Amino acid sequence: MPILSFLIFLPVLASILVAVLPDSYKSQFRWIALIVTGLQLAGCIWVFTNFDRQSSDIQFLEQQDWITLSLGSLGTVSIDYLIGLDGVSMPMALLTGLVMFIGSISSFEIKQKEKAYFSLYLLLSGSVMGCFLALDFFLFYLFFEFMLLPMYFLIGLWGGPRREYASLKFFIYTLFGSIFILIVMIGLYFSVIDPYETAIHAGFIDVKSQMTPEIFGQIQELIKELKIAPEHMVHTFDMRLMTDSGNFLPQSLLSYVSGSTLFSVPARYLAFIFLMIGFAIKLPAVPVHTWLPDAHVEAPTPVSVVLAGILLKIGGYGFIRIAYSIFPDGAENFAVWIAAFGVLSIIYGAYNALAMNDLKKMIAYSSVSHMGFVMLGIASLTSEGINAALYQMFSHGILSSMLFLLVGVLYDRVHDRRIDSYRGLAVKMPVFTAFVAIAFFASLGLPAFSGFIGEFFSLMGAFNSSFLPKIFAVLGAFGIVLGAGYFLWALQKMFFGKFWVREHEELLTDLNFREKIMLTPLAILAFVFGILPHLLFDITSPTISEFMKLWIK
Amino acid sequence: MNLATLIWLILLTPLSGFILSVVLGRNYNQLVANLTTFLSLLNLLFSFWLWKESPSGSTSLIFNWFSIQQQAVQFGFLINPLTQMMLLLVNFIALLVQLFSMEYMAEEPAKYRYFGFLSLFVFSMLGIVLTNNLFVMYCFWELVGLSSYLLIGFWYRKPEAVEASKKAFLVNRVGDIGFLLGIFLFFYQFGTTDFTILKDADNGVSAPMLTLTGLLLFCGCIGKSAQFPLHTWLPDAMEGPTPVSALIHAATMVAAGIFLLARVQPIFTADVNLTIAVIGTITMLLGAIYAIFQTDIKKVLAYSTISQLGLMLLGLGTEASVFHLLTHAFFKAGLFLSAGSIIHALHHAGHGFDAQDMRLMGGLRKHLPFTFVCYLICSMALAGLPLFSGFLSKDAILMHLLEKAGESRIYFIFLGLAFLGVGLTAFYMTRQIWMIFGGTLRNDHIASENIHESSLKVKLPLGILSVLSIGFVFSVNPLSAGDSWFWHFISPETGLMKHEENHWIAIGSVTLATIGIAAGYLSGKRVFSYQIPTFDPIYNRVLVIPTLGLSVLLQKFDKEVFDKVIDVFVKGHVVAAHMIAWFDRFFVDGLANLSAFIAGRIGSITRSFQGGKLQMYVVWALVGLMSLIFFVISQIEV
């Protein structure tokens, strides 16, 4: 069974099913969503357990010719339906399955326009999964854009009072970023040749399986010398082929050797910067982060969970999968800048979180701060740094989901998220307080929880990096103190001391069964991944060590 | 049982205590208390067993924890005499404190939480003690910080306690940043975080780098051992329950910094040693001076702990430091538990006053004779009087300093100041004993006959700790530090104190202690109302307020600038869109309109040609036809 297609299209089909079912099935939609995301999670776990931990190759590969268009002397367009998993996408896919499932439990709270909500939610689930699995740039871009639509409506229709503003802001930001990605994608398309298809078109081989290393080298040599007739050239969006400098047409805009410049900047550097801007908006990095607090504050709880838990990770994933893989030269050249923005995000996000009176905003800014560690780790160009960046993304997915669910608990009861509206909640809601304490301590990087591993090793990577000055690691470490500051401060103000609430004291009850069901697994996972880091490192390491070879000359 | 199993048992027994408390919960309060105390006893026995079983010298057991690429991160144990000593010490004091707590916390409704947190603390502390690796040590180091946070803030309804717990955690984190960076630098140079490699010194690392590494690691010690300038959290930490103060904030956790120094001491260069000595001296004097002016019984002891930790630093992490760590753990835990006994007794005698305020005490020797004797013995040990344990270890440190002074003259200054510290210690302790036990009761809220000793659960730990503060326990000749069995224990190879005995040191320190006692006795009846300003307001003004201010500023910046810029950018587009729309309407459309208009005008002009008169039509038709014919003809080229 094509398991990965199942992961993507099961929710999409379910989404259509929910959309066409009559409204009389209204009460069943949440169960459909729960079951479908549950199946998706089960599929992810199956893939996770069957993933070959020794291999750095793409696994569970599915390839289908999708669009092939002959353009005569302009060559042939080839867009493939190409999905697969390696050590970079595996943790993200698992995270997607997990967070989507938890989010669908949380969605039981949704009490209006259920049909549209669950249909969009399932659509989102499929397109996010597709985004992490796609290996064809065009396909990736398609899923990437497709995510925007359900997200826009989920915030815009079920959000808080300023939902239209927030959803539009989110939409414009991401769309703005994706234009940069689109430009680079088109540039890459014109620059990269698929040697396999080209060999077939030029008559060297009949099917791809006949390809031998000799023929491959021969083809690349011919491409380099421009000895293949243009009509035999097959252009491709295959990202695996884009990492090989031998597949670039020598005179093309983005080839290593052409030395072409745009606005007197080398074109490859410019393309790298474009990609980084596009993905940094998604991450988000300071200074393009201002959509995040607004989107979070207005989004309903499950959408916040999905947004923080998964969507932000597409930014970091895009860094590694696309920007760094295809433009290693740019990555090396701009390492200091990227790390600087990472450190800026860490410190700036933490300071902003410290000033927030809205609990949800505080957590949103803490996300900015935590994603800064991801940027710093990636920028270090060390294996521990990049592994840790992936770890940090996975860990943040778990922890931020937990944090937003916890805010949701309070908001659902009293509709007030202000920190100064509560005091001494521990007296009235001890179980809730225990979960908050776990989530807060895990988020501030306490050892034995997953966040620590990510932060520690990304800082260590930054410290050991030969590309970065040591001061970045020092400043990043300073962010850890600030992190402890805002979390403990919130804990002190809201949960300890004498009990007092601004209003609706009678509505404050401790966690109900459904909430415990959502929070307990997340707490356990944060703990498990804190003491058993090899669960993820074993998966990411082989791929990253292969990836690191891009910088060995 | 093999060694590894035994070590794992020692490490995991307290953890199982914590898990039990979480699982059993509030309904089994007493059961949890009994079980965790029993587990502590069991763990003490395990530690004894380990001590008997394990080969002499040091043993390392290493397990792979996980690996990133080829870089394996290991989880290893290092068993050497220092480890053995700490295992026994931590487990032993934990057991006594738990026993004491059964009575002290008897009326507490959330006992399970208290005993669970204590177990969590013991687990984390044993982790620090057992590991051979800085990375793993850092993990447990933070967990110790967590358990300290949880225990200081145990009474979470009390705002002061919550504030103190937060402060303790944050101040410790500041020191831990240095520790963290020290670990990075250590790894950067040695390619591992295993500190047992340090024995084969001379790794070809440059001296400045080693100095920097040493200083950064020392930052961890400054935080955890409450050294200047990060000492301010410890006095506040007294908001926690008193047995917790005895275990964590006197005997064990704060000693973790000294333990760290002892572990990584081989990499310390002369510059690092000098820095440690300077910080230690400042802290020792500062703590002693602050202790003089306190009126809260526990705060005196807290500042005294800070001061004594400073003295341990003066031993520069050598065996002398460790010796003082050991003796101090007993007598300071004894003092804290005695203070707990006093507070407990006063609490039960009446309400409506601060049971920790020494100004409301006095004359307690008659009502609490047992506690008085224990307090006296432990105080004499603290003051370093002959025949008591503190005398031996203090002399060891002073002799170490004298030996150091042979290498570098500047250590004479430290030696001199250490003597001063000895005098001050004797001074404030005499005053404290006088205030608590001397004279008559100065408290109107309670009748003195209501004050009585607590049960055996309180008395037994006090008694044991007092006995262990007597010099004979450590040396058959309690006047000579060099004769102690401690040296055989800690370094079996040589079995000797590394420093020359010097009787002048002993005589000098005793003289100063005596002067201190005399001065303390003479001034004992006067309560100093003077309060020396603490560092807190300064830190508040220099660090906390600017940090919060900056955060508010950055938040405004975020809202007013970043968001506005984006807003303007987007609005710019909207304006541009409107302009284009205008252009479209007036210019593009205008062109179309213009052409339509022109066409209209032309139409109306030509309309006049069509007057509706048939004759005119015919005329115009003719004219038109003629013109056409002319045109066509003119085009024909012959």
TrEMBL record, chain A:
Subcellular location: Endomembrane system; Membrane
Any GO molecular function: NADH dehydrogenase activity
Gene Ontology cellular-component annotations: endomembrane system; membrane
Topology of the protein relative to the lipid bilayer: Multi-pass membrane protein
Record-annotated membrane-spanning stretches: 29-51, 90-110, 117-135, 141-158, 170-190, 269-292, 304-327, 333-351, 363-383, 389-411, 431-453, 473-496, 517-537
GO biological process, one term: electron transport coupled proton transport
Residue stretches making up the NADH:quinone oxidoreductase/Mrp antiporter transmembrane domain: 134-189, 260-473
Pfam families: Proton_antipo_M
Signal sequence interval, chain numbering: none
Keywords on record: Membrane, Transmembrane, Transmembrane helix
Family membership: Belongs to the complex I subunit 4 family.
Identification of the protein by name: NADH dehydrogenase subunit M
Protein species of origin: Pseudarcicella hirudinis
Automatic annotation (TrEMBL), chain B:
Gene Ontology terms, MF aspect: NADH dehydrogenase (ubiquinone) activity; NADH dehydrogenase activity
UniProt keywords, alphabetically: Membrane, Transmembrane, Transmembrane helix
Domain NADH:quinone oxidoreductase/Mrp antiporter transmembrane: residue ranges: 132-404
NADH-Ubiquinone oxidoreductase (complex I) chain 5 N-terminal domain location: 65-115
Entry membrane topology: Multi-pass membrane protein
Transmembrane segments: 6-24, 31-51, 82-100, 112-129, 135-156, 168-190, 205-223, 244-262, 274-293, 300-317, 329-347, 368-389, 409-429, 462-482, 502-522, 617-636
Keyword ATP-binding set for record: no
GO BP: any one term: electron transport coupled proton transport
Pfam families the record matches: Proton_antipo_M, Proton_antipo_N
Subcellular location: Endomembrane system; Membrane
GO cellular component entries: endomembrane system; membrane
NCBIfam families noted in UniProt: NDH_I_L, PRK06590.1
Protein name from the UniProt record: NADH dehydrogenase subunit L
Organism: Pseudarcicella hirudinis
Lineage: Bacteria, Pseudomonadati, Bacteroidota, Cytophagia, Cytophagales
